[in-house]
Amino acid sequence: MQTGWFDVPVKVAAQQPNAVQSVANARDAADFLLHRWPREWGRQHYAARSACLAVLKGTREPTLAREAFAAAAREADILKEDLEMAENQDLPFDRVVTVSDPVGRVEIGSARQARDYLQSADWPSGGNQEDALNTAQAALDGLLSASDARDRFIEAAQQAGVLIFE
């Protein structure tokens, strides 16, 4: 079983007052989600558990678990630093796109999330994964807009038959 190290740890509120915990890999994220989660389990919590499990099984990249864990922490209002957005290299979509994935539903809310998901996804045939990936990267490079990346991601997801909501 993999550990699934994150490129940048996710900082969340710990159980002690004013304490911050750094979660640096999928194994620690799964443990935190199952044993130390301070709130009621929401939709993002369940998605994060599935993502962590997929990373631990070796079927997904750690980036997916990191993003899902950060989204769950944001949903539970325990995210201390949203490092991903702080990098100023992400372009949020105006609306989240939801796709069907072997580990469950995955919500894609930005050009970076689209790029990272497309890099690690087992994309079905019939969807132009490479074109959507290139468009997301071009948006991150400042050559296209977030709406261009979102539109191309939706088009590829429709072609692949994995689009749930746009």
TrEMBL record:
InterPro entries (alphabetical): DUF982
Pfam family, any one: DUF982
Superkingdom of origin organism: Bacteria
Protein name, per record: DUF982 domain-containing protein
Protein source organism: Aquibium oceanicum
